[in-house]
Write a structure and sequence with these properties.
The chain contains 8 helices and 7 strands, in the order βαβαβαααβαααβββ. It has helices at 14-31, 53-57, 66-71, 75-83, 90-95, 113-122, 142-149, 151-156; strands at 8-11, 39-42, 60-63, 100-102, 174-177, 194-199, 202-206. α6 (113-122) runs antiparallel to α7. It is flat, with a radius of gyration of 18 Å.
Amino acid sequence: MQAGFQVNTQVIGDHANKLVLDAYEDLIQQTNTKALRHRVEHAQILRLADIPRFAELGVVASMQATHATSDKNMAEDRVGPDRIEGAYAWHKLLKANAVIAAGSDSPVESANPFFGLHASVTRQDHNNQPAKGWYPNEKMTVTQALNSFTVAAAYSAHQEKSIGQLDPGMKADFILIDQDLVKGNPQTIWQTQVLETWINGIKVFDIASKPTNNL
């Protein structure tokens, strides 16, 4: 922080998250670096009391939604019924005005962003289980999920003036896909196929000319 770096710290457990937030709180004040948007990578299991601290400190929660759907069959057994309330707590963080920057955690998880979008919105696996989603109160809306992968992700990297959305003067980075994520069935989001990819206004992929399953 003293050297002007944005600090990213990988943290999973609730006590570890508390320790890192404590350190951030002290050091951000000492170095006057709140504007650097320091990050906590994963922010996976949180004490409920620590959730508001992300917005208060200007710290970004860099999270990976597929961790919840990968861990759902064993997470509560590991941390118990009380601590699970602060785990994968996307809705609680957003309600507390935290910035959630979404990612994949590849190669631990698939790099496919539609897997993460699907997990964010449904909290289900690819077999649509559990039926109502795992701890469904923590679901994101489609808009919130898309924001986490685009606008918020760009913000977390100090790139919000060039990428993350389509506005005049910004890079024309976008994809065309085969379904409407907002109006379509959320349970099929993970099956989305990319038809075209454009980088800075130049088409770099077209499924019609180069059939592939790659994004």
